[in-house]
Amino acid sequence: MGVRKKLFLLCGLAILFTSCGKKSGAEKAREAREAYAKGVKLFHQGDYGGAIEYLRKAEGGMAYLSPDHIRDLKFKLALSLYKEEKYEDAILEFEDYITYYPTAPNIELAYLYLINSYLKISPDPWRDQSYTHKAIEVAQKFLQMFPDSKYRPQIEELIDKAKRKLVKHHYLIAKFYEEYGYHYPAAVRFEYLLLTYPNLINTQDLYFHYIKNLLLVPQYARQKEEYWKKKIDELKEELSKGKDKSYIQRRIEFYRSQIERWKRIAQNSLQKAQENLKQYKERFGEDRYYKLLLKLKKEVINS
């Protein structure tokens, strides 16, 4: 066989194999519809892992599915991911579903599972609670959009659950500050809890720790004052070496303002402690906590 004939033969075979390997639009449509049908069947059988596999395949051929099938696919895929505890992926799918199908018949259910998904990936109370905040944000949006929803009780329960987690988060941080002697930030955290979550806290316990840390703020403030005084002394030494006087003088003035700031914080905290101590007595009486606070107050005043 001549070289020219061989080339023609090879070209013909290449065209043949290429055309054979390439699927027609009809074949792609059939495969997409079959994958969708299989995925839906597995979904209803409770085989969510299998449903994900086939719904993903069908998703690759969405151009060959009807709008109603695509909408159904997206919801069942999101819910299957949730059931398989793949909450991060479920969040992405539910968010897409809510964005593209805001009037879908099961949109309220999509919101419910989205909120649940955020809470599922929210870490323990010691760590960042961004997902908990997000769950509350979406839940409150839901209540505004669907005030008469049959899912309202469940959404309100999720909000309560999320808020209780935030309460624990702030309480643990406040206690951490307290135990390590950071009394001012501890007092700020306890005050935040008292003002923000009055119905979700042990008010008596919070009041005790709040007043206790307010009474100890002057001690904390003195440490801060000493810190800034040392910084001033360091700068004065720099001045004696002939360094840039204008820059150093500005820094000294700033450090002095910090000393005055902490003096004001100490004074205001002590005043707040005395006011809240009276309120504590009115609400809870002269219990053992009250007596401990009175003792601490005398120690602070006499120190």
UniProtKB/TrEMBL annotation:
PROSITE patterns (UniProt xref): PROKAR_LIPOPROTEIN
Keywords: Cell outer membrane, Membrane, Signal
Domain of life: Bacteria
Ribosomal protein found in the keyword field: no
InterPro entries reported for this sequence: BamD, BamD-like, TPR-like_helical_dom_sf
Pfam families found in the cross-reference section: YfiO
Domain Outer membrane lipoprotein BamD-like: 30-223
NCBIfam families: OM_YfiO (TIGR03302)
Name of the featured protein: Outer membrane protein assembly factor BamD
Gene source species: Aquifex aeolicus
